Amino acid sequence: MNINKRILLGVCGGIAGYKAAELVRLLRKQGHEVRVVMTSAARQFVTPLTFQALSGHAVHSDLLDVEQEQAMSHIHLARWADILLLAPATADMLAKMAHGLADDLLSTLYLAAECPVFVAPAMNQAMWAKSVTQENVARLQLHGVHCIGPAAGEQACGEQGLGRMVEPVDICRLVLEHSQPGLLHGIRIVISAGPTREPLDPVRYISNRSSGKMSYALATAALSCGADVTLISGPVSLPPPPGAKLIAVETALQMYDAVISHSRIADVYIGAAAVADYRPRQLADRKIKKAGDISNIALVKNPDIIASVADLQPKPFIVGFAAETNDLENYAKRKLQAKNLDMIAANWVGQTEGGFESDSNALQVFWPGGQQILPMTDKQTLAAQLLTLIAEKLHEKNPVKNS
Q1: What ranges in 156-314 are assigned the alpha helix state H?
Q2: Who has the most CB within 10 Å: 108, 111, 134, 159?
Q3: What share of the chain is helix, strand, coil (3-state, %, to 5)?
């Protein structure tokens, strides 16, 4: 059921500001009440009259506007909102928010807001890729801000890359889906994350390049949908999502034990960890010294975690991941069938965009009798899209339990 929301839309200065007008139209069409706050720079791109006509309300702009303060102060405006959405959100506004600055109405509203906050960044691809921008976004996400996009493509400046504001129809859908925690309310989800480390000696280990970013984004998205989340994580450099039960492991055998134990009572298992296929047959008790030009290390196979979860009775709804360098669709479909999965999310690795360590990715999702492409975007947005798809297929499979 779609409950009407009071949505406060913040529009920052950027060429994508014209898309915010369409966003207001879409939200109003679905029955939601929208009020608009514009920065001074935003008024240089789109007139306040446009948003006034579309929203049916006067546009708020100035922090110290006497008439507006008498009608509704910035505190009252923040309390009025069920959702605060900034679209487009510029690099400048993201920096202000990340560091608690409040020198205009919109940045002040963010500090005063107690409702869920969403940002849809829009900027030049080089500005988005700059480390300080990524640090600001990570800081905001740590504080609970939901980041939608940006998307990849051609930009107004003529350059290509991540930085385009996500299309209004997708922003509208993602915001409203996030705002309905009943989507996965009470569903117990186990997510495996990151790499494993298989020790050779007290100093060295075998591992891989997985950063855990996709798994942690999935955990955050699942929590936003009302799920009870257990995150079983290999070694990563990420803060745990607030609200998730974190179980830290290191080796594939440790991850196997933790996943099997918790999946016995789970409704959904998402196997997003990059688990080592093999481990050294013997662990040296001292550092292995260099000797000769060639060294041979005997390896033994690790247990297949996701196949073992599929053998559980009762079996949870299982989502696998496949990272491929070639023939992605065939490999993914074979894994889906061979391991008795309910869904598999496959992505390319070794490409110029996406994959391990990147902040963005794209997925081709397959399930028995269907498939869907989720195009290149940031991993937080991608995680929300995938969780929506998982919820849809889970409810189809178990309509009584999840009704």
Answers
A1: 168-178, 213-224, 252-263, 305-310
A2: 108
A3: 35, 25, 40
**Are residues 317 and 397 in contact, defined by beta-carbon separation less than 8 angstroms?**
yes
- Cα distances (angstroms) measured from residue 346 to each of 350, 381, 397: 13, 16, 21
Tokens for 152?
A: 């990849």
pLDDT tens per residue, range 39-96: 999 999 999 999 999 999 999 988 766 455 444 556 788 889 999 999 999 999 999 9
Measured in residues, the chain has a length of 403
AA identity, residue 294: I
Strands 33-38 and 317-324: unpaired
Q: How far is CA 283 from CA 121, 201, 274, 290, 296, in A?
A: 48, 6, 21, 16, 14
Helix (H) or strand (E) holding 28: helix 17-29
Q: Tens of pLDDT along 252-273?
A: 999 999 999 999 999 999 999 9
How many distinct helices (H) and strands (E) make up the chain?
Answer: 14, 19
Give the relative orientation of helices 17-29 and 48-55 as an angle to the nearest 10 degrees.
10
Cis peptide before 150 (omega within 30 of 0): yes
CA distances from 242 to 38, 84, 279, 347 (A): 31, 20, 32, 27
Check residue 195 and report its DSSP letter: B
Q: Output the CA–CA distances (angstroms, integers) from residue 68 to 65, 145, 213, in the order listed.
A: 5, 27, 42
CA dist., res. 392 & res. 403, Å (int) = 11
pLDDT digits (tens, 9 = 90+) for 345-374: 998 875 556 555 677 888 999 999 899 999
Q: Cite the DSSP H helix spans in 234-372.
A: 252-263, 305-310, 328-338
| Residues tagged active-site | 157
Asked whether the whole model's pTM tops 0.85, one would answer no
